[in-house]
Specification:
124 residues; six-stranded mixed β-sheet; elongated
């Protein structure tokens, strides 16, 4: 299975590594394979407003603005994490976050729908 994927996220093209959250020496599960096939159908644009709201809620004093004109100044997609999940199709877009370089930021999709945004700890 190819461990890289080309995706358009918030209007920009990215080639991202796919990371499977499995046990050592465990094969990719059939559900994880379904998730990989669904990646190109995800609408990452649905996460842009909640992401901007998150940044403004927690870091508005750091950006010294009331709106975000370039999301990539603060958030940069780095990889796709696909957890070992049997019931739901979960995709986690792992990102570097200017205001929390240690923990980063994750945008979670469940069954091809936006679910939440937060520190990477919520998915790891």
């Amino acid at each position: 299975m190819n461990n890289k994927v080309n995706l358009t996220i918030w209007g920009r093209e990215f080639e991202l590594n796919i990371v499977f959250q499995n046990y050592p020496r465990e094969e990719v599960t059939p559900n994880q394979e379904k998730v990989v096939l669904s990646l190109e159908t995800l609408d990452f644009g649905l996460s842009l407003n909640p992401l901007e709201e998150y940044i403004l809620k927690y870091n508005s004093e750091d950006i010294d603005a009331s709106e975000i004109t370039n999301i990539f100044k603060y958030v940069m997609p780095k990889s796709i994490l696909i957890p070992r999940e049997n019931e739901k199709r979960v995709v986690a877009l792992m990102c570097n976050y200017k205001f929390d370089m240690e923990h980063g930021l994750v945008i979670v999709f469940e069954n091809e729908k936006y679910k939440t945004v937060g520190p990477q700890d919520i998915i790891l």
